[in-house]
Amino acid sequence: MSGVASHETVAATDACGPVALLDSPHARLYPLALGEAEITGGLWAGRREVNRRRLLPGAVAHLGQAGNFDNLRSAAGQGSAPFRGPVFMDSDVYKWLEAVGWELGRHREPDPELARQADQAIELIAAAQEDDGYLNSYYQVARPGERFSNLAHDHELYCAGHLIQAALAHSRARHDDRLLEVAERFVEHIDEVFRIAGRPGTPGHPEIETALVELYRLTGRRRHLQLAAYFIDQRGHRLLGPGHHGASYYQDHVPVREAREVTGHAVRALYLAAGVTDLYLETGEDALIDVMRAQWDDMSAGKAYLTGGLGAHHEDEAFGDRYELPPDRCYGETCAAIASIMWNWRMLLATGEGAFADLLERTLYNAFLVGLSCDGGGFAYVNPLQVREGHRDPVERGARRQPWYWVACCPPNVMRLLASLEHYLATADERGVQLHQYAPGTIASERVTGGRVALKIDTEYPWQGRIAVRVSDTPAEPWELALRIPAWSARAEITVNGEPEPVEHRTGYATLRRAWRPADELVLELDMSPRLITPHPRIDAIRGCAALERGPFVYCIEQADHTSEISVDDVRLEAEAAIDEHAIDDPVPGTMALRASGVHAPAHAEPGVWPYATAGVQANGHGTHGAPTPMSLTAIPYAFWGNRSPGPMRVWIPLAR
Amino acid sequence: MSGVASHETVAATDACGPVALLDSPHARLYPLALGEAEITGGLWAGRREVNRRRLLPGAVAHLGQAGNFDNLRSAAGQGSAPFRGPVFMDSDVYKWLEAVGWELGRHREPDPELARQADQAIELIAAAQEDDGYLNSYYQVARPGERFSNLAHDHELYCAGHLIQAALAHSRARHDDRLLEVAERFVEHIDEVFRIAGRPGTPGHPEIETALVELYRLTGRRRHLQLAAYFIDQRGHRLLGPGHHGASYYQDHVPVREAREVTGHAVRALYLAAGVTDLYLETGEDALIDVMRAQWDDMSAGKAYLTGGLGAHHEDEAFGDRYELPPDRCYGETCAAIASIMWNWRMLLATGEGAFADLLERTLYNAFLVGLSCDGGGFAYVNPLQVREGHRDPVERGARRQPWYWVACCPPNVMRLLASLEHYLATADERGVQLHQYAPGTIASERVTGGRVALKIDTEYPWQGRIAVRVSDTPAEPWELALRIPAWSARAEITVNGEPEPVEHRTGYATLRRAWRPADELVLELDMSPRLITPHPRIDAIRGCAALERGPFVYCIEQADHTSEISVDDVRLEAEAAIDEHAIDDPVPGTMALRASGVHAPAHAEPGVWPYATAGVQANGHGTHGAPTPMSLTAIPYAFWGNRSPGPMRVWIPLAR
Asked: What are the residue ranges of helices labelled H in B363-511?
């Protein structure tokens, strides 16, 4: 069923980022090699600096305090502390280690203290590994003798997946294979226990699938791909039991090749999708890309928030029914945004279609970026699109970001994406170079026919729409430069050395094939006009509302930008009025804020007054207090809300009638 | 702090229903004695017949299969089966037993088989009790030696509360005190362990508080009232720990006398409120009724669904923030409706204000009644106000009622309310008789100054608004007949012996004081015109929508009443059009259905098409397919949805523009 033939190993790839492709004929696009993309300034350079200076060193203290290291010490026989924390504690260490691997690898002079901490952690992990390769501190310390007895909930294979990904980062970026040896020994053990023994089983929380395909890409050892295929083939046969939320919670209700809807726990669904897409990229099995397209279509048409946030249910951190997208109850876990970015990247590699890069960008600038406070002091786990006056539980509402969590999946996940973000900017092949995301920096490739291509990108994107691409190195013969034109940009203009070029879209990309010369400068101008967004009529929870966007950002209105006499719970937007923009310095210097006309229609609570009125009996304006008054509404990027004084926030604004 | 002085016992009350008052000077109204109210026909007689014939006997089989009886047998040493089910399994037996007690008590010839089953269960419970009075099969069988070690989650005191309430029913209705002896022995043990020993503690799930006050009312033993006060005083000091959802989940975040908002798990909050109101009724402590009013005001103004359903969160079965009332994600647990009815009844007794009887009625006919299928074959646990086309998990959506649940709190709770429903109809005191809920039957009282009052009620309520009250027995001197005028009735007309009487409202009641004569007939005419209901502007999730009501019923539109070409997900209501009514026989004979003008605006999904459009770029009508077409909308009472072919349903209907 898997379509993976039992060959010998094939040649392994060169050093690359998180996703490398073995020149698979099933890919349409190919990631750059390590070091070929750099981000040298702007928003993301700033976020990455926070990651390097604050998040990665800070995580060491949090992992120490929470017991993650102690758990591994107990497993290694270097301590006797009882196991602490949730069953997947090891994965937090692995995600942090993955982030550190990418971060250390891209500096010529890596931070010696961070390197020392990483090396210590690697040594500890190696020491904790059992002789037969098994490695999971929860089972080793708290439940010896019960390995693989609860695949549905105990995350052993999930942790193994993150171990592999950390090992890949240290091997590729630091040329340090110590963790890779640990990971491969564990994987061989898992392979023997499951695939080779023919033991039924699949992980309750997917993650190992995508990691195994990548391990195959690194090592060329086909058994890793076969194990990924084994777990994917086993899924959907209800091996995991019904659990508390039903088999669909872990996508075990229907075989993978028949699953045409995204269902259940969002992070599980999306990591699985990344793995299934990876398997397609290596095997070219049509059934796999077919269900991946169907699931993506289902998700993007009716199960995604405007921000790219995913997961409408708090209860099971799950996708809701189609169009069930309440902004206040949006779960939108930061990890789901990261998993969506990972899946969209693989779909982009598999198809070359800009829609995937568009959703990746939307998710990056909104559902992902909101998960980290501007100063780096806190992470959000839940990211709703509305928080009301007088809300309770600000942490649960995403209104107060926390330095760490008991379930600490999100913080190190943010770190590993930030540390490896340059890998998601561009791709290259014999034909030329494709630019998917825009940031100041450099892009290069050795893969273009004829010789090395090098580009320098100058831009104030995402605040301004001008992206200047300067050719610094080029072969003599013609090659193709492809630039993504985001679907949100109503117009796009391109000049080369000041001369206008006709812009042809092809699946979201403008492509210019020519004999480029050093110092040639292409300028792409995207339309950064503020936009008024209205929802599909079946999204009931935001009926009669509109949202504001500019560039890749979704905007929100926050109490901090309005006087205390005005509650953002009571404002209305004038749909026809012009939207102005202006730069502000708080909370992020250079931020473009928007200003629009609205009205304030106060409608405070009257305690004890039933809030449903009979038409024709009670006044139509029941609940309102005083006449609506005109006002000016200020909106800031959603990603930056909750960084000033606390208060209500909303993305969707009711329209004035 | 409790205000309960340590007196000796006072005189116990006569046989009464679930709530008896010791002629407390703090009550405004007094429940009737046992047998003084009868329901002889109509909707509720039918539901109670289903309860007697199908639900109560059927529960014996379910309790047997689920292990409830086996657990008690193991505790009694009559079996050795390991404990099965959730920790509160005993409470399901007690709730069923309470229902059986009320049911057997009100028949002159009680069902001998049901009586035999009840007696068997009582013997089993008595056998399971430890020598020192302790009784909880979970701890006895599964965790011996660990009693009262996890008050936050293990429901020992909650189960004790339901044991007391079952005992009260058998004592009052059947004059059988065997279970009462068991309950009092357990209560004395609890009293010694906690109050007398001064051990800090309060139940994670309130319920015992209201039961203890009632046990005091039955026995006159003041220590039971003191124990209720003890647990209420202990609450709000975070003795229960933060738990997974924070201390507010079990109302332990703030002392009871400072808690001015309803928060956390809805059933916990409402059972606690019933107990606190009961304590006020006995002590008259102003601080208690003051916070109860504040909480009720908070709940009714912004945390209650139109149906009276409570609990906007699935995750923690909890109240949301004020105005956070998504119809699709409404949890609206059937038990929360029952608990709300219990609390509202006590608030009515404490205040005499019709608003509490209004909310009780709304909850009874909608949020409660929807919890039982028309044929009695299934119970709903969750009761949303909208279910979409293509929804997943019909059980979780309340779209498929189940014969029983693993967590089976709702089914026997439905049974005990149905079995005791006549107790919620009327009250009486020296001044006269007060009618709160209308059903065909008889009402009598010995309490009215001068002699016995007896009334016969003839009505086709809730389908028709005419309520005829015929005096069959009366003292010679004048007394006062009070009739609730529901807030939903725009007009109310009263005649006595055919002569119009002026209707004066006083806190929701029309009061007629006169020298009544046998065969006098009062006729109350309520306004049963269909009503169009609009929501408070801050209830974002139903912006631009209206709902239909008639009499005490909230209506909904269900796919079963519309052709397959029309999806109820796509209909719009014409707000200005007339609403017609007509009788239907399916699913309930005599049901009044409504018909209104609407339009069908098809807006099916386009897979992969982003459902948010830029105004001025994409067409304004994005997502819609074809022109809206006029149509006729049929609405049925929400309580009866989901009894025919499955499909989408909605209470709130978007208005056509």
From this structure: 410-419
CA-based diameter of chain B, in Å?
Answer: 81
Instruction: Find chain A residues with C-beta within 8 A of B538's C-beta.
Output: 569-570, 603, 605, 611, 623
What the block records as the tokens of A374 is 């501007």
The answer to whether B544 and A537 have CB atoms below 8 angstroms apart is no
Examine the pLDDT at B78 and tell me if it is beyond 90. Answer: yes
| Cβ atoms of A441 and A422 closer than 8 Å | yes
Three-state SS for B592? Answer: strand
Look at residues B47, B52, B39, B45 and name the one whose alpha carbon lies nearest to residue B640.
Answer: B47
**pLDDT for A445:** 95
| Contact yes or no for A608 and B321 at CB 8 A | no
Q: What is the pLDDT of residue A395?
A: 82
Cα gap A186→A164, rounded to integer Å: 9
Q: Is A328 in contact with B329 (Cβ distance < 8 A)?
A: no
- Residues of chain A numbered 55-74 and touching chain B (CB < 8 Å): none
pLDDT for the residue numbered A6: 43
Q: Give the CA distances from residue B401 to residues B382, B404, B434, in Å, rounded to whole numbers and listed in that order.
A: 9, 9, 36
Tell me which residues of chain A, numbers 116 to 135, contact chain B at a CB-CB cutoff of 8 Å. none
DSSP string, A83-107: P-S-TTHHHHHHHHHHHHHHHHHT-
Judge whether residue A9 has pLDDT over 50. no
Which CATH fold topology does A432-526 show?
Answer: Immunoglobulin-like (2.60.40)
Write out chain A residues lying below 8 Å of B301, CB-based.
Answer: 605-611
Contacts (Cβ under 8 Å, ≥6 apart) of B412: B59, B92, B95, B96, B98, B99
Note whether A43 and A421 are within 8 A (CB). Answer: no
Tell me the DSSP string of B221-254. -HHHHHHHHHHHHHTTSSTT--TTT-GGGGT-SS
**Residue B243's pLDDT is what?**
87
Single out the residue of B485, B483, B581 nearest to residue B526, CA to CA.
B485
Q: Which of A538, A579, A653 to mutate to test the interface with B (most CBs of B within 10 A)?
A: A538
- Tell me the CA distances in angstroms from B210 to B19, B282, B316, one per residue in order: 9, 11, 23
Contacts of A533 in chain B (CB under 8 A): 612-615
Torsion of CA A195, A198, A200, A206, to 10 degrees: 0
Helix (H) or strand (E) run with residue A311 in it:
none
**DSSP H helices in B175-221:** 178-191, 208-219
pLDDT of residue A620: 43
Residue numbers in A near B626 (CB within 8 A): none
ipTM rounded to 2 decimals: 0.93
CA distance B285 to B277: 10
Ordered by start, the domain boundaries in chain A are 12-303, 432-526, 531-654
Instruction: For B541-553, write each residue's pLDDT tens digit.
Output: 999 999 999 999 9
Count of positions (residues) in chain A: 657
Higher pLDDT, residue B291 or A10: B291
pLDDT at position B605? 66
Say how far apart CA A297 and CA A375 lie, in whole Å.
Answer: 36
**B518 phi/psi in degrees, rounded to 5:** -55, 140
Encode pLDDT of A432-484 as tens digits. Answer: 999 999 999 999 999 999 999 999 999 999 999 999 999 999 999 999 999 99
Using the predicted structure, report yes or no on whether residue A196 has a pLDDT greater than 90: yes
List, by residue number, the catalytic residues of B. 317, 409
Q: Tell me the percentage of chain A whose pLDDT exceeds 90.
A: 87
CATH T-level fold of B12-303: Glycosyltransferase (1.50.10)
**Does the pLDDT at position A392 exceed 90?**
no
Res B14: pLDDT: 54
Q: How far apart are CA A416 and CA A102, in angstroms?
A: 8
The predicted model gives A380-406 an average pLDDT of 91
